[in-house]
Amino acid sequence: MKPVPKQDSLSPRVQELMDRIDSGLPEGRIPSAIMGNPEVYQAELRKIFGRAWVYLAHESEIESNGDYVVRKIGEDSFVVTRDERGNINVLFDACRHRGVQICRSDSGNSSHFRCPYHGWTYSSDGSLVGAPLWKNALSNMSKENNGLARAAKVEAFHGLIFATLDPTAPTLREYLGGMAWYLDLIFGLDKDGVEILGKPQRFIVDANWKSGADNFSGDDYHLGTLHKSVWSIGAFPVPFSENMMGYHIQASPGHSLSFSMAEYADEPGPNFFGFPESLAEHFDSVNISSEQLEVARRSRVFVGNVFPNFSILALPMTEDGAQHPPTGILTIRTWQPKGPGQIEIWNWFVGYKNMTPEEKERTYRAGLGTFSLGGSFEMDDTEPWLSVTKNGGSVAAELLDFELNYEMGLPGIGMATPVSDWPGPGRVFWTRYEEGVQRNMYQFYADMMRAEPGQWPEFQF
Amino acid sequence: MQQVTATPRPLSTADPRHVEVVDFMHYETELLDDLEERLWLTQLVSADIEYQVPVRETVERARGKGFSTNTFHLNETLGSLESRVTRGETKYAWAEDPPSRVRHFVTNIRVRPHEDGDEDLLRAKSNILIYRTRQSQTTPQMLSGERDDVLRRENGALKLLRRVVYLDLSVIGTHNLSLFF
Question: Which pLDDT belongs to residue B7?
Fold first, then answer.
């Protein structure tokens, strides 16, 4: 990796913390203060969320012309529209005239957005179409230069819409790097693709957004303690120790993932994340390679995070083990920052378009009962994150130079070993007793924080 | 979008059916406040229970209240409620151990005969406010909403057959929903 130049605008404290990530990571040390320090957070909004490709919506949420949803980049609202020509736009939700919010519903269908203040009106592609008493008020003013502000770049991958506010950003494909191979084998598994089931669930957790990203980068070790209760209700079919077998993968800088997978190809399963055989028989290599299809077949669990805050989880679950055997669920979520100590979690459930209505209903119920605000898995997840952030922002953490331990899987620590014959991209480790996936996230994080405007860290190892 | 408010006047608060529902709700609330969830489930909940908390969006007035008809925060059956209660009884249900302090305030109880005309069914709407603190919190988490219930007389006693909770929130301000409404 090229050395990343220092950025003058970081405060000395933030600069120090980023340097300590750099020096500490080889020993598995991260300063706790990054999880709650307000100066760090302010810098993140600009250096991370103001620049990275951020996930906003799936194309199936805005299927028809005129459909829109309101989503966040950092703390700021953008209207994601499908305009009258069928194109996707990501528009800053602020009128050109006085900066007033122009979209007043969370989602809907409309050919126009009319500002409630003076009535400036924009079409769903963001262009200014008029304002009241145009002749008297604004005749001869250019409409072309007064459309809604737009995200600098917008791209979709398997229908997943991402945007960046930085015109110097690389292409989405370049940014995703090796992660694209793994997103393929989830979202491209069925040739007809996926769709979002219903509306997003949104809830507030008094924690730092990085706790979510960290956990979904591949924190499998916590299942044995934090989620011990779910085995007692039969929510998940793979015993804990067996579930720790699998691969930890740093797909490319920043993006990490984890597979629960047996060592041998003829293992008993569950296969394809537990999706039913009736569905899995449609999975094919039309859009993905036969290697990707085989990795998906052998996967019991997939969990991953696209830096900074877009996470994906596929695994067999049930909300009612006595009545329904576990079935594959697919949840995607964003960890929206809302302050150094607050996240708004957005949680969507995803189905394959080719599922029958009954299969969609089953996967939705199983997902909702486990990985949601009221789900048996997730309700415990948020509990420890509260104090990660509280302690991170504490005076004691600062005065004691309190550091978090990410040593698992460092050379000589634990059983994880590098894998050389893996079919996909990235740095790969066997067994999931490993925290390189998180170290990869924090290294890229520190590199992004220190990158000067217009400069980017490497996207390949 | 679902219509939440029904139009006919509710039964008088002096009507025996109203009184019976109030008694049911006061006892139910006591069990939930006291974390007697197993007792609540076995004594007051019908085996055919449908228990839902729909997701809500902000929408223009003309589009109604913004409740989703197919997306939920909770969408429970007896089996999933049973799982939930059993999970809470394990030693590893960290979300509620140490438990939250939870207080349910139930008001504005409006009872009506069920629209099907079945005399074993009663429709009961109520306002609910849940006040919750954890650990040393002094600022409570609060959840306010309307419960739209159907109660059924089973072997002479009322049981909760359906509950839909319409929350006054589009973004839920609690870090989990490890409680019952």
Answer: 74
Residue A141 in tokens: 């003013």
Residues in chain A: 461
Q: What is the mean pLDDT of residues A274-286?
A: 93
SS3 A284: coil
Determine which of A171-175, A233-237, A396-400 has the lowest per-residue pLDDT on average: A233-237
B-side interface with A, Cβ within 8 Å?
A: 53, 55, 57-60, 63, 66, 68, 70-77, 79-80, 82-84, 86-87, 90, 92-95, 170-178
The type of residue at A212 is G
DSSP three-state, residue B46 = strand
Residue A350: which region, alpha, beta or left (left: phi > 0; alpha: psi -120 to 50)? beta
CA-to-CA dists, residue A340 to A184, A285, B126, angstroms: 33, 43, 38
Nearest to B51 by CA among B84, B93, B26, B15: B84
**Cβ of B63 and A108 within 8 Å?**
yes
pLDDT reported for residue A232: 86
Is there a contact between B74 and A379 if contact means CB atoms under 8 Å apart? no
Three-class secondary structure of residue A62 per DSSP: helix
Q: Which of B73, B76, B80 sits opposite A373 (nearest CB)?
A: B73
Domains in chain B: ranges and CATH: 16-167 (3.10.450.50)
Q: Nearest CA to CA, how far is B35 from chain A (Å)? A: 17
Specify the pTM: 0.95
The closest of B15, B14, B3, B4 to B113, measured between CA atoms, is B15
Asked if pLDDT for residue A2 goes beyond 70, the answer is no
